[in-house]
Amino acid sequence: MSLLNDIPLTALHFYLTAPYACSYLPDLQARSQVATPAVLIGTPVYSELVQHGFRRSGAYTYRPHCDDCRACVPLRVPAEQFTASRSQRRAWAQHAHLQASLHPLLDSAEHYELYQRYQRARHPNGGMDNDDCESYQNFLLQSQVDSLLVEFREQGVLRMVSVIDLLSDGLSSVYTFYEPDLPRARFGVYNVLWQIELCRKLDLDFVYLGYWIKHSRKMAYKTGYRPAQGLIDGIWQPLGKEFITKDAHGNL
Question: How far apart are the first and last CA of the chain?
Answer without folding.
Answer: 39
